[in-house]
Amino acid sequence: MKKNPSEHPFKSVLSLEPLLNFWRKNVVPTCSHMAAMFEVFESHLNEIPYLKGDIQDISVLKKHQDLLIPLMSVVFPAASWNHEVAGALVPYTSEAFYISPKFQELLIDEKGGLKGRSDGSHTPGTDFTLKAYYLILDRIYGIRQRLDAAVIHIVPDPDTGLNRYFRATPDLQFTDVRSLGEPPRLTQKERSAIVENITDLDTLAGLIRPEKFEFSGFTVVRAVDVTESEVLSALEKDLIDQQSIFSADGFRRLQERLRTLFRRPELIAGMGAVKGDHVLVLTDGCETEANCIFSNSSHIRLSEIEGSVWLRAVDQGTVLRVPDLKAETDLTPIEKLVLESGARSMLISPLSYQGENIGTFEIMTPHPNDLGPIDTILVEQISPLFSVALKRGLDEMNNAIQSIIKEKCTAVHPSVEWRFQNAAFSHMDRLRVNHPSEMEPIIFKDVIPLFAQSDIRGSSEARNAAIQTDLLEQLGLALEIMKRSEKAKPWPLLSEFRYRIEHRMEGIRNGLSSDDENSISWFLQDEVEATFEDLSDLGAEIREAIEEYRQTVDPVLGVVYRKRREFEESVSMLNKAMSEFLDEKDSEAQAIFPHYFEKRQTDGIDYVMYVGSSMMENSTLPAFHVKNLGLWQFLVACGLAGRTEQMKSRLKVPLDTCHLILVNNSPLSIRFRFDEKRFDVDGAYDVRHEIIKSRIDKAVVKGSKERLTQPGKIAVVYSHTAEGREAQRHISFLQAKGHLLYDLERLDLDELPGVRGLKALRVSVNLKLQRRK
Question: What pLDDT sits at residue 7?
């Protein structure tokens, strides 16, 4: 039998027995007339032994079309035979023995095989072989796989030479799988390995021996022309990628898709992007391989196309149809150039984004009156895709222009933007006179750092508890299904499943390991849930338990995600509330005195502020403002503790926050790291401050295992006595104002790696007062 283009290791034979059985079971009992017909067919078949059982030479069927055609009428209705792309093939081969005229015309080559290619992730041979294994798994071993998955087949159009796309869907009801001898048994481990590696041919071949199986009967294939939908889908994917428009190769590929969509091999596509008083023209004539609309286009002035067909399309706001450019009057010079290039019939669509005209998209052919109303509808359909792609290209170009100024200094804080602008200007000025240039170092000396953090206490434990609860709930639902099923049918495998589920539940109750979440989810989804289809036949109680399981499982994630979602939502809500509060307070502080501010969110929030005269463009920094921001830190910490207290009633998972302020009145230098686009300390001595910042949240009280940071309290860490005295003055003031309680602790801290001699103060926030705010 012919197997190209899909060679596989299985034996396939043609047989009409599945079709005859279909007549006997489904046709004969329902219609006496058809029964009488079949009796005649069967008597003739009994006289032709080589048509019974396996048919070794399919050419003999040509002699018996008088039998084959009426027998096949239950598969292929005569009313649609001349219009449908359908046929019957020897199982898992390309050898067709009964095909419609359209199938013959479009999909069969001169040698009688399938022409064209499949548009899939596997090669045709791999795809056919996988599906052959899937049929064996389904029919012999009960491992369900999709057997009717359609394949997109691409063939050249005999008239235009352009690709046409057909969705070919197999019908395997007339395909049988025969086991040559007793089929090899599969252990549970082997079945699990197959499910886990279902697309790996080596795994399947190692567990299922091809020589033990044979396919017989025939496969029905029906194909539908889906060229338009496939090309539209491909266009959408292409236009997500900037290479599709803003490189020469990409634009040519895009044009080929448009030729296929409009079924015109000579179609030419073009785009024009409006940028100020210029139009950037994109066609497949661009020779550069650059990926930028500015560098990969020809540029003309907007005034050169005044009164042209392109601006007429923009003015009318809809697709403009130009039946014949040659018949237009008073052609502009640009229109004459387009005409000289061979364009006659045109469709021009204005492109806009959020109400703003950004350019045009056009298709052209060399034949007058070639593009009609149906083509206009297609252009209207795809124009929004080109609008979004063009807008993205314009944004990229604008970013490229801006990068000349901020090439290495993006995302800078407004308070220090002046310094980057000065450096960029100097850089551009040196380049202007052809001097070698790199961006000069940006360093701010003698700045005071102010750092604080508000961490969510016990977030890791709460996260693990949520995972445990969700897993136990899902396992419990699965256990109930197995218990009910075991009552209905005391099968040993159900008892084994119940044992495995109970064993995993006991393990989770004893503690959660790093791999439990993934391994249990895999066990439930790939093993337990695979039994539901069979178990649902055991009775209403089991179906009810299965439905409860499915209703409880998240439809997207495929697991019970109730407590984890509640935890994540609670952390997110608390983080958002604290972040918004911090932004609000920093805006107030910026209004008093500008400073550099940077925050970061994890399970909680931390921030750093830098203040100093060197960061001011035209002013100096009075010591008063440094002290003022120091007190501001305490007020913000009280406010963050209060915001946590206010949020508790709205959180599904109770969370607490611990607050820490690091006092460092010693000036340091910070340098902008161009590679990381962020500020960092500059100099070996100043690195100590960064080390303390990164490790202080793990600090414990000296001589104990007690964490320094505690819920509802503010911990203040300092190195020098003067820093401690200043912090105590702020605390005394806030105690008098009722913000803090009178429980101040003076603490020494255990040494941290690379850090020693740290001291701390700790005091409770008056949460009753904060709650009322």
Answer: 55
